[in-house]
Amino acid sequence: MKKIFISLLAILILSMLTVANAKTIRIGTEGAYPPWNNLNAAGELEGAEIDFGNEACKRMGAGCEWITQDWDGIIPALLNGKYDIIIAGMSITEERKQKVNFTNGYMTDGARFSVLKDSGLANISLAGVAKVNMNTAGGKENAAVGQMIAMFEGKTVCVQSSTTHANFATQYMSTGSDVRLYQTVDDHNIDLAAGRCDAVLTDVGSAIDFMGTDQGSNAAFTGPTFSGGPWGDGVGGAIRKEDTDILEMWNKAIAEMSADGTTATITEKWFGRDISM
Known about the structure:
The protein is an alpha/beta fold. The protein folds into two domains: about 1-110 and about 235-270, 3-Layer(aba) Sandwich (D-Maltodextrin-Binding Protein, domain 2), CATH 3.40.190; about 110-230, D-Maltodextrin-Binding Protein, domain 2, CATH 3.40.190. The protein is about 40% helix and about 20% strand. It has helices spanning about 1-20, 50-60, 75-80, 95, 140-150, 165-175, 185-195, 205-210, 245-260, 260-270; strands at about 25-30, 30-35, 35-40, 45, 65-70, 85, 100, 110-115, 130-135, 155-160, 180, 200-205, 220-225, 240. The chain has a six-stranded mixed β-sheet, with helices on both faces. The protein is globular and about 55 Å long. The protein starts with a helix and ends in a 6-residue tail after the last helix. The model is unreliable at about 1-20 (pLDDT under 50).
């Protein structure tokens, strides 16, 4: 029994040392969600999370190997061992926690509806509410949500599938609106610009990025900025439940980068504002 215990202890120590001294950390990302992560014209990954992940790896004494993966299969690919962590603008939600562990949140960005400027739906203020945190919403905030839902009755609302935005639209709007699901934000942005969507619901930063393009120049925000509830507790890295050592390493790097302002600097570069946690 003693020999078995010593052998198991040796294996455990060796496993921990292997992770701690790993030369490469494999990171899964979508590569289609600017400014969080995106493949540029040269086919290179760039964005806030790419800078963030590279800096975290440096602090852990490891290199980063970035692996792109379609969003719909990004968690299954993690569970099948394709990479060690997902860094892909993924909101921390209770539903996802059933399958994976999350690092501490490192960034958060609200969600908002975008419409066309000439649609008659642009820049509408509801009940004087600019922000709605679904975790702490009171009567005024809930009234604004109700008004927003009513405003889009009979309209086509487009969202990326398997996202918190899709969860919100499906839960709150599917009975009165035509909720359409898309594989990527680029796909529904194209349809918004072409008038095939009355509205899209996405992260504020992603919408701002689209509005800065020629194609998105006719898009505008409407209604309040949403957070909490279906949108979870910020954005974090997803890790297999058994990889507790990797989780500890990332949380340490995340805490350091938050404390010394590194994450804030990265988000200001890519989002034009501090969305660090």
